[in-house]
Design a protein that fits this description.
four-stranded antiparallel beta sheet
Length: 97
């Protein structure tokens, strides 16, 4: 379970969308076109779910677990994608593929 911080949870209506080609880190959070807030949590990825040579953490959407661990979250062409042990995955609206 993640220790939630105020920046991890949507604090009302979002009035901005993260620009294309922004990634976290270094950005603290990303906001998609639906107003959903994305960030990396504080839980380290378990053994076997870490991209080689990198750190990975749980991926949160509006403060809730997505079930993925990633080293980066990016906004690309208006879509959220994450870099995982299995390579790049994109958000479909229901999960990552």
């Amino acid at each position: 379970m993640s220790l939630l911080q105020p920046f991890m949870i949507r604090q009302g209506e979002q009035v901005h969308i993260t620009e294309a080609y922004v990634s976290s880190p270094p950005a603290l959070t990303l906001t998609d076109s639906r107003g959903d807030l994305w960030c990396l949590g504080f839980n380290n990825a378990p053994h076997g779910r870490v991209p080689g040579g990198e750190f990975a953490f749980n991926v949160l959407k509006n403060g809730e677990e997505t079930g993925e661990y990633a080293s980066r979250i990016e906004m690309r062409a208006g879509r959220i994608r994450v870099f995982t042990n299995d390579g790049w995955k994109r958000w479909t609206g229901r999960g990552f593929v």
